[in-house]
Amino acid sequence: MSLTTRLVILAGLVGLMFYNASEQQLWAAIIDWQLGWYKLGVPIAWGIILGALVNLLGGRVLLKWLEPITLVAASLTTLGLTGAAAVYGAHQIGGLTLAPLFISSVGVGVYLFAYSYARFAGARGARNEESEDSVDK
């Protein structure tokens, strides 16, 4: 069994802990974190922006960390989605799913950080190869 599969299974099991949370605990988490439906997109947008910005400023520093970052992103996304399904299954209230959905939104944001970093690194590498080819001619 691969490491990715093991992490996803473990995160899914941890996500089921949301099933045992009471309505009061979930509402308290939502209020404490000041969550709303519009805030679910914030980590996703920041992931894209920061991935591009880190690549522009940092160069190729994070290339060796892309695989672990992607594994963490998959785990967070699975944890959040499993938790959201467990909360909805236990309480049948869609608003209570905000806390676990926010965790999964952070996971998607982390994945998009790695994705945008890799895309910009690939574009930079292709541009450097083209400029070396034109200099050689």
From TrEMBL:
Keywords: Membrane, Transmembrane, Transmembrane helix. It comes from the Bacteria. The chain crosses the membrane at residues 44-63, 70-90, 96-118. This is Uncharacterized protein. It comes from Pseudidiomarina marina.
